[in-house]
Design goal:
The complex is a heterodimer. Chain A has one domain: MetI-like (MetI-like fold). In chain A, helix 2 crosses helix 5, helix 7 packs antiparallel against helix 9 and helix 8 packs antiparallel against helix 9. By secondary structure, chain A is mainly α. Chain A is 82% helix and 0% strand. Chain B is α/β, with parallel strands linked by helices. Chain B is elongated. Chain B is 35% helix and 23% strand. The relative contact order of chain B is 0.11. Chain B is built from 14 helices and 15 strands. The model of chain B has no long low-confidence stretch (mean pLDDT 92). Classes of the chains: A mainly alpha, B alpha/beta. At the A-B interface, helix 6 and helix 7 of A face helix 2 and helix 4 of B.
Chain lengths: 215, 354
């Protein structure tokens, strides 16, 4: 008996593609929501350092909540829905993104932002044209970690009826059938690796000035 | 003209002032150096001018306009700023860094490109560096780019905050020389902060010496400061070799040569009379063209090689070095055509300092 039954894979190719699509969509949406929330929080935290330590503690506590428990806690409010998994996943991306955006902005050399002030940049333009681009390598590093983490976490949401490729694990375990397990396993790893490489490529393309330097 | 009127700056409400009731007028087209030990308020003074810091009391007036009446962004775009660690934008190329202020001011693309090319040459950079990123440049090159960026929109005022402190001494001296020749051409109103008194003396048309607590101890041209320190603090700050520093500011042409002059022309038979008239036991020989050809003790029969010759533009500090190395305690001075026009000894230099 072979480890993998290709005929099963062929018959379910459409379903698998759908799950892969949902996996990508959940990951992408969670990252997007995470960025939209983390960004203004990070800007505020850079402005008021006391807020930063407070938010680190809060996001840190959130991060220690086991993922499954968090999803189950949300069910009474949002049910077994896409929203439930999305809220849970977003919370996890938040800490990583928040911390990296703050560290990225704080890592902008003082003389660089000082020079921007002295040359007559307005506050907004200084942020967009100078500080964010200089912080970009650290921010993108955070997005990469958050993306890979989220791709792993999405499988857990299969337990509340979502889960993209995670559904393959459920059916594999329920049916004592290794093929879906292997397909889910390989595809989620491939997805994580390619998203990570893609983001690294995007960073490389966006930051010609950063090439050949250690990050 | 930049005028400080009773300007005080405190960082905390209860802190001692970083700058105390400063009255100071910086002249248009001059290079003024603010110098003093760390924590004396010199950098604060500089940063008040483009409102990187706001004064706690008093006011600052540029060309009859109190700077508080100006829009802070317009004010800053109209004042060049060079800092210690270049402050170049790491994500922008050399050309893009230089173009920063013209772009903020909305110049046309072609005009910016032409100005960038002009500036790269002006500050002595290779045009091939235009596409490089700052981390690919040496410290000296980065500072040059910093100067070019500050000059980009041709501002009448240039603020320089210890711009050469982080580069090695040889490069620093070269950058100082270049700044002087640049200033001779551009005639900007430059405010230059340093903690290095030698740099202040080399560069400044006037120097303002600050003491701890933000007190202006003396404000005068370097020669005046060296000749007459206002108080013990200034004298201490100038150092024990103050007279040597003063000598460096005079050229050989400023000194009166020994008179009568112990110099013999070709065909002279009685060198003894010449030497004795000058009160020495030697003479310098001049050849038919008037150039110094050697020197001779009275009790020797042949002249010796002439040794170091001081030109009219050489500093008296260099002349003193040559005098100390000469067995005669004197050096020949030549004019611009290379003709021996006098002999300098220690007394001649002391007379300049007196």
């Amino acid at each position: 008996m072979s480890v993998i039954r290709w005929d099963w894979v062929e018959r379910h190719a459409g379903d698998i593609a759908g799950m892969l699509g949902q996996h990508v969509a959940l990951t992408g949406l969670a990252l997007l929501c995470g960025l939209i929330i983390a960004f203004p929080l990070a800007l505020a935290a850079v402005r008021w350092p006391r807020l930063y330590s407070l938010s680190l503690v809060l996001t840190g506590i959130l991060f220690t909540v086991p993922s499954l428990a968090l999803f189950i806690l949300l069910i009474p409010f949002t049910g077994l829905s896409m929203a439930t998994s999305l809220i849970g996943l977003t919370i996890y991306t938040l800490l990583i993104l928040f911390r990296n955006i703050v560290e990225g902005l704080r890592g902008v050399p003082r003389d660089v932002s000082e020079a921007a002030r002295a040359l007559g940049y307005t506050r907004g333009r200084r942020l967009i044209a100078v500080e964010l681009p200089v912080a970009l390598p650290v921010i993108v590093a955070g997005i990469r970690i958050a993306a890979v983490t989220t791709i792993g976490l999405v499988t857990v949401t299969a337990l509340i009826g979502q889960g993209g490729l995670g559904q393959l694990f459920i059916s594999g375990f329920t049916l004592h059938f290794t093929t879906p397990l292997l397909v889910g396993f390989v595809l989620s790893i491939l997805l994580a690796v390619s998203v990570d490489l893609l983001l690294a490529g995007v960073l490389w393309w966006l930051t010609p000035w950063h090439r050949g330097r250690s990050a | 003209m930049i005028r400080f009127e009773q300007v005080t700056k405190r960082y905390g409400r209860h802190d001692a002032p970083a700058l105390a009731e400063l009255d100071l007028t910086l002249c248009t087209g001059e290079l003024t150096v603010l110098v003093g030990p760390s924590g004396c308020g010199k950098t604060t003074t500089l940063r008040l001018i483009n409102r990187l810091e706001e004064a706690s009391a008093g006011r600052i007036i540029i060309d009859d306009m109190p700077i508080d009446d100006l829009d802070v962004i317009d004010l800053r775009r109209g004042i060049g700023y060079v800092m210690q660690h270049s402050g170049l934008f790491p994500h922008r190329t050399v050309a893009e860094n230089i173009a920063v202020v013209p772009r903020l001011l909305g110049w046309k693309r072609a005009r910016i490109r032409a100005r960038v090319d002009e500036l790269i040459t002006l500050v002595g950079l290779d045009t091939g560096l235009a596409g490089r990123y700052p981390h690919q440049l040496s410290g000296g090159q980065q500072q040059r780019v910093g100067v070019a960026r500050a000059l980009a929109a041709d501002p009448p005022i240039l603020l320089m905050d210890e711009p050469f402190a982080a580069v090695d001494p040889i490069v620093r001296t070269r950058l100082q020389d270049e700044l002087r020749s640049l200033q001779a051409r551009l005639q900007k109103t430059i405010v230059f902060v340093t903690h290095d008194i030698d740099e202040a003396i080399r560069l400044g048309d006037r120097i303002a010496i600050f003491a701890e607590g933000g007190r202006l101890a003396q404000y005068a041209p370097p020669t005046d400061v060296l000749a007459a320190p206002a108080d013990d603090f200034v004298a201490d700050f100038l150092g024990a070799d103050r007279d040597l520093k003063r000598l460096a500011l005079f050229s050989a042409a400023d000194a009166s040569a020994m008179s009568p002059s112990p110099v013999a022309d070709p065909g002279t038979t009685d060198i003894r009379a010449i030497a004795q008239a000058a009160g020495v036991n030697w003479v310098f020989w001049r050849d038919a063209d008037g150039a110094p050809s050697g020197w001779q003790y009275l009790d020797e029969t042949a002249p010796q090689a002439v040794g170091t010759v001081i030109g009219p533009a050489d500093s008296l500090r260099k002349a003193l070095g040559a005098i100390l190395q000469s067995p005669l305690g004197a050096v020949p001075r030549v004019d611009a055509q290379g003709r021996l026009d006098g002999v300098l000894d220690r007394a001649a230099l002391a007379a300049v300092l007196a």
